[in-house]
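Let's practice the habit of predicting before peeking. Look at the sequence and jot down your guess about where helices and strands might fall. Then scroll down.
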Amino acid sequence: MKGCHEIEIRNNRCVYKLAFERNLSVITGASATGKTTLVNLIRNYDQYGASSGISVRCDKRCMVLDNNAWKLVLENTHDSIVFIDEGRSFISTPEFAGAVKNSDNYYVIITRENLFNLPISVEAIYGLHGRKYFNLKKTYNSLYRIYPEQTQVNSTTQIIT
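Done guessing? Here is the structure:
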């Protein structure tokens, strides 16, 4: 998979608008910002479809990886966006890092831990913004970069002769 993939996930209480450009991204941040709610919405939609009351708009399949048979699941998953919630011990193993490297999926890992085995770019580490509109009783969530893009300084070199 290549390029930017936009995802819109919604139910009657919240909306998530996300975009991922890299095959490996991390969502991190404080408790109660909506990270686990995001994973639960994707899991429910993947299991029950439209009858779950959740809608997912994306050009790729979105799924959640959260069981002990992760190797088998990844071997049979292609061209998808795979979400992994925090607390999964396999994400810090070299074996998982190898599986990610040889995969055609995008991975979105929700964690507050350091993942030393995975080549994560600082440009792919996000947090969640949540905005509540009380008159609508709905929460709108979007990503923000933890490490914002740095401004590039143009430097010139003078040669004195």
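How did you do? Helices lie at 35-48, 70-75, 94-101.
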